[in-house]
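Thread: Newbie trying to understand structure tokens

Hi all, I'm a second-year student working on a class project, and my supervisor (Dr. K.) asked me to get a predicted structure for one chain before our next meeting. I've only ever worked with sequences, so writing a 3D structure as a token string is new to me. If someone could post the tokens and maybe explain what I'm looking at, I'd be very grateful. Here's the chain:
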Amino acid sequence: MIKKTVLITGSTKGIGHGLALEFLKRDHQVIINGRSAEGVKKTVKELESQGYDVLGVAGDVSKEATFQSIVEKAIAKYSKIDIWINNAGIPQAHKYFHELESCEIEQLVSVNITGLLLGTKTAINLFKQQGHGQVLNMEGFGSDGRMMKKLSLYGTSKRAVQYFTKSVSKEVKDENIRVGIISPGMVRTDFLTESSSRGDAAEQRRNQKVFDILAEDIEVVTEFLVKNILKSTRQYDRIEFLTPRRLIPKIMRLMFVR
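---
Reply by user tm_fold:
Sure, no problem. This is what the structure looks like when written as tokens:
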């Protein structure tokens, strides 16, 4: 087995942390990233105590300097990055779009969209230099065009993932650079728990029913995703957990649960 070096932004918690742990279990090297230096330090200490090979680099993904720091430190320790996963993202405040403050709009766009663009740009430039690499961008609610009230901004940020990723993959198709999408579906994380507690009592009950049936445990999702990321050989790939084969039985259950 060739040991891979994997960067995952937003990997101190949630699905990013789950992906990191799955790669490490398979004896690969992982670069942990998060906005909080304390959070990154804590995560690195936790993983190193289990005997895993990790590097932590704190920083805001909306700043290009963060990615420059990641590359410099990764090359100094590992000499390469093989897989680059743009996972970092933040949720939308539980408000209609017209109720959002300008600062709330700017912050979400800067992390969910600008961070994705800057991360992909940095990854491709690195991969051109080292002669290979794979960059994967994380989908979320709205990527497929579905809409829900008080998620207009978040959904818009995730809808951009498909167009951007497919377009960039065409730009580098003649090089040894692979570009793709990770589609995890609905995963039981703190992000999801927070979402289910929003709104009035009736809305919370509806959300909880949907989440109980459609959501899956982090460990189940990340094991599937990492296995298929490592198997992937396509120049453009979409690695999807919640396929129709998994989704249809869940929807049938949802229709009959009252």
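A couple of things are worth pointing out once you decode it. The radius of gyration is 18 Å. The first helix runs from residue 14 to 25. Feel free to ask follow-ups in this thread.
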